[in-house]
Design goal:
The complex is a heterodimer of chains A (385) and B (259).
Chain A lengths: L6 H18 L3 H7 L4 H9 L17 H15 L1 H20 L2 H13 L4 E4 L15 E5 L2 E12 L6 E7 L9 E7 L5 E6 L10 E12 L3 E2 L5 H37 L1 E2 L2 E2 L4 H29 L6 H26 L10 H11 L6 H19 L1
Chain B lengths: L1 E5 L2 E3 L20 E3 L1 H17 L2 E7 L5 H9 L4 E5 L9 H15 L4 E5 L10 H9 L3 E12 L2 E7 L4 E7 L2 E5 L11 H9 L4 E2 L1 H4 L34 H15 L1
Parallel strand pairs in B: 1-4, 1-6, 4-5, 5-11, 6-10, 7-10
Antiparallel strand pairs in B: 2-3, 7-8, 8-9
Classes of the chains: A alpha+beta (385), B alpha/beta (259).
């Protein structure tokens, strides 16, 4: 399928594929096995300027936008979703600064993020506040020129490895969702420590950690947007980032489909390669169709964001839900095509199936996002009446 | 610190063809790559520039299509590239090549370190680096596996020898050739790739570098390639007969015949 990429976007795609094949593929099984954070690959990605894609040119980025970021994410994820997630999460942690940061904050942080020498993360989820983010308990209290943060964040991707965290905390408990604010918290600020690193089913090359704030003093200048804007920052940030989660899933499924096609041609039963069996052919055809449909949706959603549209909650949610459900199905079918060996760690598809699951869960579960999509539909209809 | 890297575009290894008339490699029309050893030279140059600022200039003597290799070098971090190309250079052996490169480097004038790969994949001689230093009358060290220190007009390097390495101090400007142990070359960067598509690559002719016609090209090349062929690989085996003493005697006789 031709998606009419610009020369620059083709360059990005080729380069991301080169990194994926030369640097990620040879070590992905080992990273998964050892649950090891891929610092060497992060450095390769940084040296190749891929962290610059999403950052505006005046802050030493390439100003290429979300679509180009999705292309790079997809190519990295084709080799390893865990490594690609580290990359995509760096963008997630950057979006709040891009959308709501002051000039000083942008000047201070964006060039470093563009260079890729320091990673970012986004801290919203708590043990008691998952889909219901309004139940969060982490607080930020103004004290002179500082806010004092107390509480903890759970399941934070890039946690412990990132240097800069956008943290959502309650500044006014009486105002409900309007009482939350966003803060830029740097690793090493006194009172900011890391809890346990989680042991996960999939995306094991990615780091997932607890963040702990105990009387952590954050300068007032590190408030993102205004006080009380925390939930808006969160919602808008996730609206932008969801097509990238879709891209993670598209790349993951692409890797699984390619593996399944190759294995089907190689594996012989009843005297023929199993690719001669219609049952296998139909599975492969369905995988390919659903994958391409998801890719088209993800690209369209990302391009909608880049077009400067004001509201793309629905598009982002659709791209995320459709692509992640697709990846779960395609990777499961890839294991099925492989049969017994597909279940074994010597072959890559069982890892892909494990990696796929989380995509249906994080950045809004697919159930909550279906609520979001339905709400938009119903709101539009109600407005017309 | 101004660093000059000499690179060569070589045919992809599966594509080697030999011109039956001239006994030289056919290069035109064959997809080329940067000679793999030169990639280590380029990477080391870029790393030295990152360590102590300056400029990396990549030069290559070759046909017009060698420009592709120079553009690739820009995407891998070089600042500037110059193509040294002239019909008069065709058929140059290592001596004539070194002469042409030395003239081009003399024209660049402002250089501190010249880095080459240890040898090319096609010619395999490893002679251009040392010849270049002779012609420029500057110091030379081959098989460098590490640049330990570099400043102003001084450099300390490690040279690989059969077992271990030697540490050598040298004054600058100087020429070094590097081995693959020296670094892991980086992948291209996006900014480098973008620059590589648009950057001007000047082409210097024999006249531009003041090369004398009888010293370049086939006329300037003392080497005559008589024949290039794949050596026959023969494997013979013979099983000695008799008791151990007799077998040893037979073996000794065989060995004496060979030596």
């Amino acid at each position: 399928m031709d998606y009419f990429l610009t020369e620059q976007q083709k360059l990005i795609k080729d380069l991301a594929r080169k990194i994926a094949e030369e640097r990620i593929l040879p070590v992905r099984a080992e990273l998964d096995e050892k649950e090891e954070f891929p610092w060497a690959i992060v450095k390769d990605i940084a040296d190749s300027d891929l962290f610059r894609i999403f950052i505006p040119e005046q802050y030493e980025g390439l100003g290429e936008g979300l679509f180009a970021l999705c292309i790079a994410t997809e190519e990295l994820s084709r080799a390893c979703c865990g490594v690609a997630l580290t990359y995509a999460t760096d963008a997630l942690g950057t979006i709040p600064i891009l959308l709501y940061g002051t000039d000083e904050q942008k000047q201070k942080y964006l060039p470093i993020i563009a260079a890729g020498t320091k990673l970012t993360a986004f801290g919203l989820t708590e043990s008691g506040a998952g889909s219901d983010a309004s139940a969060m308990k982490t607080t930020a209290t103004l004290d002179g020129d500082d806010y004092i943060l107390n509480g903890s964040k759970q399941f934070i991707t890039n946690g412990g490895e990132a240097e800069l965290y956008t943290i959502i905390a309650i500044t006014d408990p009486t105002r409900g969702t309007r009482g939350a604010s966003a803060f830029l918290v740097e690793k090493g600020m006194p009172g900011f420590t890391f809890g346990k690193k989680e042991q996960k089913m999939g995306i094991r090359a990615s780091a997932t950690s607890e963040l702990v704030f105990h009387n952590c003093r954050v300068p007032r200048d590190n408030l993102v947007g205004r006080e009380g804007l925390g939930f808006i920052v969160t919602m808008k940030t996730l609206d932008v980032s969801r097509p990238a989660v879709g891209a993670l899933s598209v790349g993951l499924a692409q890797g699984a489909l390619e593996a399944a096609v190759a294995y089907a041609r190689e594996r012989k039963q009843f005297g023929h390669p199993i690719s001669a069996l219609q049952a296998i052919q139909h599975m492969l055809a369905n995988m390919a169709m659903e994958l391409e449909a998801a890719r088209a949706l993800v690209y369209a959603a990302a391009r909608t964001v880049d077009s400067g549209a004001k509201d793309f909650t629905e598009e982002g949610a659709m791209a995320k839900v459709f692509a992640t459900d697709m990846a779960m199905k395609v990777t499961t079918d890839a294991v099925q095509v492989f049969g017994g060996v597909g279940y074994m760690r010597d072959y890559p598809v069982e890892k892909m199936m494990r990696d796929a699951k989380i995509n249906q869960i994080y950045e809004g579960t697919n159930q909550v996002l279906r609520n979001v999509i339905a709400l938009q539909l119903l709101k539009r209809k109600a407005l017309r009446e | 610190m101004n660093i000059v890297v000499c690179i060569k575009q070589v045919p992809g290894t599966t594509e080697i063809k030999i011109d039956p008339d001239t006994n030289t490699l056919v290069r035109e029309g064959i997809p080329g790559v940067i000679n793999p050893f030169d990639c280590y030279a380029l990477e080391e140059a870029v790393r030295l520039r990152e360590r102590c600022d300056g400029k990396v200039t990549v030069i290559s003597m070759g046909p017009p299509q060698a420009e592709e290799a120079l553009r690739e070098a820009i995407s891998l971090g070089a600042d500037e590239a110059i193509l040294i190309s002239d019909r008069a250079f065709a058929g140059s052996d290592t001596w004539a090549t070194s002469y042409v490169l030395s003239r081009a480097i003399a024209k660049i004038a402002d250089y501190d370190v010249i880095i080459c790969g240890r040898q090319t994949l096609d010619g395999d001689t490893g002679q251009v680096g040392p010849e270049l230093s002779e012609m420029l009358r500057i110091p030379f060290v081959a098989y460098v596996s590490k640049v330990e220190e570099i400043k102003d007009d001084y450099m300390r390097v490690q040279r690989m020898v059969e077992e271990g390495y030697e540490t050598i101090e040298m004054s600058l400007p100087a020429v070094i050739t590097v081995v693959k142990e020296i670094n892991i070359p980086r992948l291209p960067s996006l900014r480098g790739s973008m620059k590589s598509k648009t950057v001007e690559i000047p082409v210097w002719s024999a006249e531009d570098i003041g090369a004398e016609a009888n010293k370049a090209g086939i006329t300037g090349s003392p080497t005559r390639v008589v024949k290039i062929f794949f050596p026959k690989r023969e494997q013979k085996s013979e099983i000695m007969q008799g008791n151990l003493e007799e077998q040893i005697d037979q073996l000794m006789k065989k060995l004496e015949e060979i030596v």
